[in-house]
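stage 2 :: seqdesign
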C-alpha cells in the first residue's frame, strides 16, 4: 500500500493572512509531499510495503520512522487548522478548565511549550494513557502515539512552518496559530 498525500481540508490560500498560500505551497506541496515520496521509496520491496501508516510508525526507526511519522504529523497538523477558527465548545472548554485551570492557561502552556521546543519539533495537546490531558513537545519527527498518547491538537514548530510568513519569529507564528485552531477537530479527537 503506497502512502499518499491527503487532500488539504481547505484551499491553499484559505488560511491567509495568518498562514499564506506560499507557505502552504512549500509546507504542504513540497515538505509534506517529500515525506510521502521518501517513505514510499523506503518501504518498497520490504515487509512494510503493505502495512498501514500507523503500523510502520510503531515498528520502524531511523529514516523510515522519520518520514512516516512526518506524514502522519503533517496530516494531523492540517486537520488541526481551519479558516473558521473560533473558540472551544462549552464541553471542550470544561475539559480544558479541568486539566489546566482555564482555556487561557492551556493556551499559555501550549504556546510556551511550542516556543521552547529546541530546534525542530512539534507541540501537542494529548490525552495520556490514564485519560488525562497534557501538553507535550516532540523533537524532529517525534509523535505521541509511540508514547501511548492520543494526539488532540498539534502545532508544527519546524522553521519550514513559519519562515516565509514570520521569518525567525516563532512567537508571532504561535499568535497566528491560535486564530486558526480547529476546536471541533480537537473535540472529535477527545471523544474518539
Ligand atoms: Fe512541517
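stage 2 :: out
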Amino acid at each position: 500500500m503506497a502512502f499518499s498525500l491527503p487532500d488539504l481540508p481547505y484551499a491553499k490560500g484559505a488560511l491567509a493572512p495568518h498562514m499564506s498560500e506560499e507557505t502552504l505551497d512549500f509546507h504542504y506541496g513540497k515538505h509534506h509531499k517529500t515525506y510521502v515520496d521518501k517513505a514510499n521509496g523506503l518501504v518498497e520491496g520490504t515487509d512494510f510495503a503493505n502495512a498501514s501508516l500507523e503500523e510502520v510508525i510503531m515498528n520502524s526507526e531511523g529514516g523510515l520512522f522519520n518520514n512516516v511519522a512526518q506524514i502522519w504529523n503533517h496530516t494531523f497538523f492540517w486537520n488541526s487548522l481551519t479558516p473558521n477558527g473560533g473558540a472551544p465548545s462549552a464541553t471542550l472548554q470544561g475539559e480544558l478548565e479541568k486539566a489546566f485551570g482555564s482555556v487561557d492557561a492551556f493556551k499559555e502552556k501550549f504556546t510556551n511549550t511550542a516556543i521552547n521546543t529546541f530546534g525542530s519539533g512539534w507541540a501537542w495537546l494529548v490525552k495520556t494513557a490514564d485519560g488525562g490531558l497534557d501538553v507535550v513537545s516532540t523533537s524532529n519527527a517525534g509523535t505521541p502515539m509511540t508514547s501511548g498518547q492520543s494526539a488532540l491538537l498539534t502545532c508544527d514548530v519546524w522553521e519550514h512552518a513559519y519562515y516565509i510568513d514570520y521569518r525567525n519569529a516563532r512567537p508571532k507564528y504561535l499568535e497566528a496559530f491560535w486564530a486558526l485552531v480547529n476546536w471541533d477537530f480537537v473535540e472529535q479527537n477527545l471523544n474518539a
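stage 3 :: structure notes
- The chain has eight helices and three strands.
- The two ends are 25 Å apart (CA to CA).
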